[in-house]
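DM from R.C. (forwarded with permission)

"hey, sorry to bug you on a friday — could you get me a structure for this? deadline for the figure draft is monday and I only need the backbone to look sensible"
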Amino acid sequence: MGGVRRIPRKFEFHWGKGIVKEEASVVTPFHEPTIQLLQYDSGERALRFCVYHGHQFSRVPMIIDEETLAKLGAEVRKNPALLRLLKKLVP
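My reply, with the result:
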């Protein structure tokens, strides 16, 4: 399970499109919790909290335990723009 997804890569929703600019994820035995920095073509940025199963995006809520949360935090720190936006969530 898991793997490297290329960054940046395109995304498209019915309300807008753009690129996944940064991504932090951790592989667990059950899934791959992921936080993505999305940048729309308009310049607006947003965060997406999601889950992958291997290379397959999954439309389930991201649920992570404490141990995985710490590991995901370490991955977030490798992505400066993603980290800056998350710091707005909890200054």
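R.C.: lifesaver. The longest helix spans residues 66-76.
me: no worries. The helical segments are 66-76, 80-89.
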